[in-house]
């Protein structure tokens, strides 16, 4: 049986929900969000603070700034249990909250996008004037992945399109059973 994989994103349709601002380092400067998309451990100066850009109902899974996953300690416990070698949990202070939250930094990148099964893909070309991006994805619409290329990964980012966070069906199921708020799942498995 083929394992199914899901794009994990922020459920922006939760009524009355909070909106998080960009993470700030100990000096009050915005944290460079690409640190958390490279698939490797990140080092950040001092305590990280996440301001609210809109007060509202706190969520267990949210995205701050430019697609930085912010998770409640109960979500962190699930990832620690189910994929301990694939994540780095970086403590953050979320404005007006006493509970512990973390940046969920994914430590695995897998080359798995199924170009032929996606609605549309475009790759960066030399003539685009971005030499450091040549060959990587410029557009991925209706993303589908080839599950045979994933191996044993349970949580990862797809190579060339690091703005997406992917999880296996068992992580999705564990999050749903735990009643995690704020998470949205979209099946991306090619069949």
Structural topology:
Elements: E1 5-10, E2 19-20, E3 48-50, E4 52-54, E5 61-64, E6 68-72, H1 73-82, E7 87-94, E8 101-106, E9 109-110, E10 120-123, E11 137-141, E12 155-158, E13 166-168, H2 169-177, E14 183-187
Parallel strand pairs: 3-7, 9-12
Antiparallel strand pairs: 1-13, 1-14, 2-4, 5-6, 6-8, 7-8, 10-11, 12-13
Explain what you see.
With 191 residues, this protein is mainly beta. The protein has one domain (5-111, 142-187). Helices cover 10% and strands 31% of the residues. It has helices at residues 73-82, 169-177; strands at residues 5-10, 19-20, 48-50, 52-54, 61-64, 68-72, 87-94, 101-106, 109-110, 120-123, 137-141, 155-158, 166-168, 183-187. The strands form four sheets. The chain has a five-stranded mixed beta sheet with strand order 9-12-13-1-14. The chain has a five-stranded mixed beta sheet with strand order 3-7-8-6-5. It has a two-stranded antiparallel sheet with strand order 2-4. A hairpin with a 6-residue loop joins β7 and β8 (101-106). The longest helix has 10 residues, at 73-82. The chain is globular. The mean pLDDT is 94.
């Amino acid at each position: 049986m083929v394992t199914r994989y899901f794009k994990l994103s922020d459920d922006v349709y939760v009524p009355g929900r909070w909106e998080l601002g960009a993470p700030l380092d100990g000096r009050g400067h915005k944290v460079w969000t690409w640190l958390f998309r490279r698939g490797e451990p990140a080092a950040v100066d001092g305590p990280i603070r996440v301001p609210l850009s809109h007060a509202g109902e706190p969520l267990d899974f949210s995205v701050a700034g430019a697609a930085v996953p912010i998770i409640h300690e109960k979500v962190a416990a699930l990832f620690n249990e189910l994929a301990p070698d694939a994540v780095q949990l970086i403590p953050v202070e979320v404005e007006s909250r006493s509970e512990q939250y973390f940046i969920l930094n994914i430590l695995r990148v897998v080359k798995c996008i199924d170009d032929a099964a996606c609605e549309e893909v475009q790759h960066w070309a030399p003539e685009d004037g971005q030499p450091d991006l040549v060959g990587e994805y410029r557009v991925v619409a209706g993303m589908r992945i080839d599950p045979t290329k994933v191996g044993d990964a349970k949580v990862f980012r797809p190579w060339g399109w690091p703005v997406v966070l992917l999880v296996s069906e068992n992580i999705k199921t564990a999050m749903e059973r735990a009643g995690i708020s704020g998470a949205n799942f979209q099946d991306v498995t090619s069949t």
